[in-house]
Amino acid sequence: MPDVLVFSPTGNSRKVALHVAANLGGETRVLDLCNANQVPQSLQGTVPVIVAGPVFGGRVPTLMIQRLRQYSLKGAKVITIVTYGNRAYEDALIELNDLVSELGGTLVASAAVVARHSMVPSVASDRPNDIDFHNLECFTNAVKNKLKDPGNINAVSVPGNRPYRQWQKAPLTPVIVGTCIHCGLCAKTCPTQAIDPREPSCVDSSKCILCMRCVMNCATKARVLPQAVQTMINEKLAPIANIHRNSEFFL
After folding, report:
1. pTM of the model
2. What is the rounded CA–CA span in Å between residue 234 and residue 87?
């Protein structure tokens, strides 16, 4: 029965983590780090723990780090996963692994999985695909073999640098340009509670982390990035749009 600690604003990391959990077997318990009201629970040392989240600017989202720190992983055997939009995951995986070790977990394996880009969905639009899921199944089988001999779990080495790369969110938020029906879903599901539920066009830029959940969840597609920003990001990512990157696995 694996535990899944996941921060997945647009669903990519959750999809990958649950696929790994299903292949590990048994009932899965999901602890949603996007949920501001999620109450930290004890994690059993005998149960594998999957910790998964997206890459923001080559790093793990700060909010994910903050919420993970509410958990103790002492005695837990941990599989870490980051998902990224076909550009690079840079220091995200090593940062996540360092935190797992700090929280007392024992790293068993890690993966960096290519997934649809949250800001430019046309980039890696079909990822993770059937090949990615097949590779995840092979990865999980190797993890299961490793878990059978807990006394022989070797250290997991992943790419990345210390100190981690510097990154800061741009001081902007998604805006409403279409017909907002005031359903309240964007405010209800915002991981940082940055959106005013009474007036969804009001977003606290100091809280918004540009996770794109509100854009993805908008039923009328009324919420988007500012046009100038979207154009700039499209142009920046154009060179990688048609590049195929393989997901990477570390045991």
Report:
1. 0.96
2. 13
